[in-house]
Amino acid sequence: MSIREENEFWSNTFEGEDLAGEKLSSKVFENCTFIGCNFSETIFSRCQFVDCEFSKCNLSLTKMDYSKFSDVVFRDSKTVGIDWSKVAWPRPIFSAPIQFYDCLMNDSSFYGLSLPDLLMESCVARGVDFRSGDFSNANFKSTDFGRSLFADTNLTGADFSNATDFDIDIFNNDLKKARFDRFEAIRLLGSLEIELV
């Protein structure tokens, strides 16, 4: 069954597909698994992904133009440079419809999104834009946030256990009941302009 020729897929496993730089429009994937596929610079235009998993896939610089996601897991994959604000998110969102485990997510954007309960565990998320978003009760455990942007961001109840290299201004973000490791929490003092001795 070819992704290029068919439009609807149920319970299919796609392994080693190479669709780099191609455009896929109005495709529906339900309960599908993608293993070791190359979707770098692919354009997913108005596609739907429901109960799907991407494992060891390359989705770098993929465009998600008005595509929909529901219960989609990205595992050990590259999702570098994706603008997630272009996704057609459901309204309202009670729990984030996407999860990331062990992914490389550098230079992506979640700007202005409301994705409570987002799961981003053991990822490298350097240079990612979280400004003006709602990520309350998110699971950010063991994730590297070097150069990532947090401003006017709701991080209420978010779990940053074992997360590293974050720069979060405590005056410009909502951090009530957020969890941080003691030693990494010292990074939160950076906005106070104090000297630690």
Automatic annotation (TrEMBL):
This is Pentapeptide repeat-containing protein. It comes from the Bacteria. The lineage of its organism: Bacteria, Pseudomonadati, Pseudomonadota, Gammaproteobacteria, Alteromonadales. It holds the Pfam family Pentapeptide_4. It comes from Pseudoalteromonas luteoviolacea.
